[in-house]
Design a protein that fits this description.
Blueprint: E1 27-29, E2 35-37, E3 58-62, E4 66-67, E5 74-75, E6 78-82, E7 88-92, E8 97-107, E9 119-128, E10 132-142, H1 144-153, E11 156-157, E12 163-170, E13 175-180, E14 190-197, H2 208-213, H3 218-221, H4 232-239
Parallel strand pairs: 8-11
Antiparallel strand pairs: 1-2, 3-6, 4-5, 6-14, 7-13, 8-9, 8-12, 9-10, 10-13, 10-14
């Protein structure tokens, strides 16, 4: 399990766009060991995230910072599972920010890319200018607004590598998707959810060498935080 972030992070709203508005600060990976802002980043203040789905609609979760079932691959992100067997449920933005990159790929019930019975899955990265990134994966039915962006700028690829897009303003609570996962899975109800503090590498119980040995790249794994601790009492309900 990842350690909690050093402070409880209610992020200030990202600045609204406008004809004379400056481009938002975005963060880019330097290819080695750090994320760098495009300009001076605003302070994060006391950050508080909104759960990405109504707690009452969930019946399970997987904590961030764990090994997968084979105990060989480290997963810095967590996951949330809808109680509805059809996987119909609202997935919303946990933070104000900007949609900066995404991926669209095909995966089947066995986790095989482009295998028999594959369904298109969507990955969405939202950055707050102060240096937080929130990643959603295994979204199936996107909101109309997001779907238009994917149709225009992010083609369905052979894998989940991301494509950068011109930053698009996203408001906390804005609906991102209304269904998740591969539809013919035995339990098609789960989507991945990860939160990353790009300002600094996080302390964890695993060294960089261990992470590399278990197939987890430094780009995100070394920056992941334990997101339920950033959601106040609702985060405690998820952990219960």
């Amino acid at each position: 399990m990842l350690l909690a972030a050093t402070s409880v992070l209610a992020l200030a709203p990202a600045a609204e766009g406008g004809p004379k508005a400056k481009a938002p600060v975005t963060w880019s990976w330097n290819g080695k060991d750090a994320w760098l802002p495009s300009a001076k980043a605003p302070n994060c203040g006391n950050v508080r995230l909104q759960p990405p789905a109504p707690v009452a609609a969930l019946d399970g979760w997987l904590p961030p910072g764990r090994l997968n079932e084979t105990a060989r691959y480290y997963k810095a992100h967590g996951a949330l599972r809808f109680a509805d067997p059809s996987a119909n449920g609202t997935v919303a933005a946990a933070v104000d920010g900007y949609f900066v990159r995404g991926a669209a790929y095909r995966e089947n019930r066995d986790g095989q890319m482009n295998g028999p019975g594959s369904s298109v899955q969507y990955l969405v990265d939202i950055q707050h200018p102060c240096g937080f990134l929130v990643r959603y994966d295994h979204l199936r039915t996107l909101s109309p607004a997001l779907q238009r962006i994917f149709d225009r700028s992010i083609p369905v690829g052979d894998d989940s590598r991301t494509t950068n897009v011109k930053p698009v303003k996203i408001s906390k609570g804005q609906v991102l998707a209304t269904a998740v996962s591969v539809p013919d899975q035995p339990s098609p109800r789960q989507f991945d959810f990860g939160v990353y503090d790009l300002r600094r590498q996080q302390q964890s119980s695993h060294s960089g060498a261990w992470l590399a040995d278990h197939g987890s790249g430094a780009e995100l794994a070394n920056f992941a935080v334990c997101w339920p601790r950033l959601m106040g009492s609702t985060g405690a309900q998820i952990e219960a």
